[in-house]
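User: Study the fold:
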Amino acid sequence: MFFVSDSIFAQSRNLTVAIIIDYEFPFSVGKSQTVRLWAFFFVTLVKMNIGTATSEENPTNSYLGSRGIWITYVLILLITHFMLLTIPFFSVAVAWTLTNVVHCVITYFMLHVTKGTPWGTPEQGKARTQTQWEQIDCGQQFTPTKKFLTIVPVVIFFLASFYTKYDSTHFCINLVALGFSVIPKLPQLHGVRIFNINKW
């Protein structure tokens, strides 16, 4: 029968956890014999804030620039586009226009309407009044993350225009969607609430 009799924890950059396991032989005659086994587990610790997911006070500042996010973003975009292409009654032009419009609408609401931080407490300080876009990279302009998030809708717009053969109807729809995605990202509109919309 196995049972853990003791455990020893030593904190360092590499954490060694030694667990003492006693094994009692059921077939022994008379006094039971116990064999003590030592199991070592090595865990690499990452510097972090205890009790939180990251070491930052406001992870909204940097999560869009963290490793793997950009490629995940592009993959989700491609999967969405391929899913729209699989719908039999959608032409290639319609699929590209819908990809552009859906992307622009979702990113508009995620980056320019949503305020605060989902990881914070109800009392979020100045993050409470800032949109996600305004919090990225602590409000700095022209950072790699902000450039990437600005270039992607422009590239999708050009692709949608090309695959719709510059049809005027599709072009107007795609241009309006691009405006909703790119105009709020301009540095001149940082912190600006037009007609006090989304002020609180």
